[in-house]
Specification:
11 helices, alpha/beta, eight-stranded mixed β-sheet, about 40% helix, disordered C terminus, four-stranded antiparallel β-sheet, about 475 residues
Length: about 475
């Protein structure tokens, strides 16, 4: 009996200890501020300063953005803005009326902005006014093209047309501004809206950067409407997306004379001819076939009479590549080939790689993490089946200058629709867009900005997911 009295309390004590061990083991570990990929706990001591939003809360805000963007009054307003800009196209650094229209609409939305920036550009801000900062960009300039499409809102200016969709880009960014203003209290940072001049000149973004538009900006996003993809779809790719583009112009100097006495002359036309042939070997015999590059001679000028050897002759063209290393390598070899070929034929050569009308553009390289975020939020809006991995394109964009400074992503928005006539490529006098893309573009802009700021404030210690 004495032993039993001793064992019974001991057994009860063991059961109690086992129960306490089970309960404490099921509790979450204490919160710490170490950088890891584990999600923080929902408590006031978190290193994320109470910025954590649940997935349900985030989805609710995204639903609000979609609803606001598809509101019939908003869709009508965005469409009218696009049509007004389209009727009054302005070339690079001449976008005064376009800029005035944008400022008028921003005033109506009570959005603060800075103007002028890079002559006609505008920079607006919506949000807390504090970090993090995310930028959205739209270009504003038109092209020197006579519009051939007959419709109610065609260009009113002879010889000028919005044939590259920049009118749509302006309207979509203003649409995003309207949406973001309505959810401003839910933004976890500041959205910077960049209305940029002179994209077609390849200089607008550089001038905007010089005036500080990227100061404190953590990421940037831009879009372009394209006819290659159907309306309601998007496309992009991580890493190298659009090619870098450079131009060259070489003047080869010899000694003029009568064509009947070539021995008394130094023929620059011969030097130009052999230079053209030798330049083709750079891509065909010196570069990796899997590393796409282009060298094209597109202009040759020399002489004014059939029986006179001229003093000089000129050739000009373009070169393109997807990596900065390949791009710089092409420029080096173009110079070497032309100079050496000129020397072989006793001529001299002067080469200009920085033409004012056709400035050099670097490759457009998307940041992989920003790309993943863009595709994820785009898939939530258009359906993942309508997001495509785009191939690399040989076209170029001055958005690349922004991406040299801060991480970001450039996205294609599909506009192809045979029924609406939206089938022509950009820089075509019949270029037309399906206006259904306008609210979609506004929604994607706004959703990306909201999502980036939310991720930045809740996921400071890990990459985007």
């Amino acid at each position: 009996m004495g032993l039993q009295r001793f064992l019974l309390p001991l057994a009860l004590l063991l059961v109690l200890l086992l129960f306490l061990f089970t309960v404490t083991s099921s509790l979450p570990p204490s919160t710490s501020c170490s950088c890891s990929n584990n999600p923080p706990h929902h408590n006031s001591n978190s290193c994320f300063n109470n910025a954590f939003y649940t997935e349900d809360q985030s989805s609710s805000v995204k639903d609000d953005i979609i609803s606001l963007g598809n509101d019939p009054d908003t869709v009508k307003w965005i469409t009218n803005v696009r049509r007004e800009v389209h009727r009054n196209p302005e070339l690079a650094y001449e976008e005064f009326a376009t800029s005035a229209l944008i400022r008028h609409e921003l005033d109506r939305l009570s959005v603060e902005y800075r103007w002028p920036v890079a002559r006609t550009g505008i920079v607006a801000k919506i949000g807390t006014g504090s970090p993090p900062f995310v930028a959205l960009r739209a270009d504003m300039d038109a092209l020197p093209i006579q519009e051939m499409t007959e419709w109610e809102h065609k260009s009113r200016v002879d010889g000028k047309m919005h044939a590259c969709g920049h009118d749509a880009h302006v309207a979509m960014l203003l649409g995003a501004a309207k949406i973001l203003k309505q959810i401003q209290h839910k933004l976890k940072g500041t959205v910077v809206l960049i209305f940029q001049p002179a994209e077609e000149r390849g200089e607008g973004s550089k001038d905007m950067i010089k005036e500080g538009v990227l100061n404190n900006v953590d990421a940037i996003f831009g879009v372009h409407v394209v006819h290659r993809y159907p309306i309601g779809s998007v496309a992009s790719r991580p890493g190298e997306f659009l090619a870098g583009c450079g131009s060259f112009k070489a003047v080869i100097k010899g000694k003029g004379g009568h064509a009947a006495l070539p021995q008394d002359s130094i023929d620059p036309v011969l030097a130009v001819s052999t230079s053209v042939l030798s330049l083709q070997n750079i891509v065909s015999r010196e570069t990796d076939p899997l590393d796409s590059q282009v060298v094209s001679v597109t202009m040759i000028e020399g002489g004014s009479a059939f029986n006179v050897i001229p003093d000089s002759a000129t050739l000009a063209g373009t070169y393109r590549a997807f990596s900065q290393e390949s791009f710089d390598g092409l420029r080096k070899r173009i110079k070497e080939v032309i100079c050496k070929q000129a020397a072989v034929h006793r001529c001299s050569a002067e080469i200009d790689f920085f033409g004012k009308e056709h400035p050099t553009l670097p490759p457009t390289v998307n940041d992989p993490s920003i790309y993943e975020l863009v595709i994820r939020i785009s898939g939530e809006i258009v359906g993942i089946e309508n997001t495509e991995l785009a191939p690399s394109f040989m076209g170029s964009e001055d958005f690349a200058f922004y991406l040299e400074k801060v991480p970001g992503c450039f996205l294609f928005l599909g506009i192809r629709n045979e029924r609406s006539g939206s089938i022509y490529p950009p820089h075509n006098p019949f270029f037309t867009i399906d206006e259904d893309v306008l609210p979609l573009g506004a929604i994607i802009h706004a959703t990306f900005a909201y999502s980036f700021l939310l991720n930045s404030s809740t996921n400071k210690c890990s990459s985007f997911s």
